[in-house]
Amino acid sequence: MAQPHKNELIIVSGASTGIGAATAHELTSMGYHVLAGVRTDREADAIRATGAEPVTLDITVPKHIEALAERIANDPEQRALRALINNAGIEINAPIEVLPLEQWREQFEVNLFGHIAVIQMLLPFLRQSRGRIVNISSVGGVAALPIFGAYAGTKFALEAASDSLRREVTAHGVQVVVVQPGGVKTEMAAHSGAVSLELADKMSADHQRLYGDLVKSTVASNTAFLSRALPAAKAGAKIAKVATTARPRARYTLGMDAAFIVPLARILPTRLMDRVLSASHRSQRNTSAR
Known about the structure:
Number of strands: 9
Structural class: alpha/beta
CATH topology: Rossmann fold
Number of domains: 1
CATH architecture: 3-Layer(aba) Sandwich
Shape: globular
CATH superfamily: NAD(P)-binding Rossmann-like Domain
Pfam family, one: adh_short
Order of helices and strands: EHEHEHEHEHEEHHEHEHH
Number of helices: 10
GO molecular function: oxidoreductase activity
InterPro entries: NAD(P)-bd_dom_sf, SDR_fam
Protein name: SDR family NAD(P)-dependent oxidoreductase
Family: Belongs to the short-chain dehydrogenases/reductases (SDR) family.
Radius of gyration: 19 Å
């Protein structure tokens, strides 16, 4: 029996692990031809085994983005580009005073500028197909936790860019949707805590005194939460639905924490929101200590 969506392409960047891999797998099972962005041959073999087509895609490398556009333009079956899911990302967390500027720039290059470069290159295909852009933001794009300043900054910027883009291209028939995940069990989330502790070990004695306990408690809190966070497979299934539903909303949250925090951040005064996040942080830390 023919699969219903075999004549449509969907791109998922950052598809080697976590949310991206789960989304690519779900879309493939729905019958779409998924072009899954990976960076190594090993990752390509793994994603190929799920039925998706791997494409070499580091979104900070212009030649990779150009090659992706050529792949779409020269598709042997002339399939339309149904959706672009901008999922690639990195996370390096440390206090703003001590995080090196090169690591600030690295996060913005991947989490913001790389996505903009892909959008700029592929918008002509999406206009032609009246397709959809799905930008994977974060609850951190609405409420920034301590030591998450750089990562949250990239997501706040992606939120703003998505709003402008949506208002620019709606008249062209292109839809722009933002997905705001909270905690999701992924390799990136699990690894980020270790990276934060490594950076903290390199801080000066003064910075250790000022921020050492804060870093350790924040990592402990996040680690405790991730043990019961949303599985990547469930996150991928929802993103696949968002990417393909007929009439999507402008924004979706993923996970109970995002569903709780995002609306609060929009209605509570800033100082009260600070207290809410601090209380939540203490609760998670106390849970991890039991």
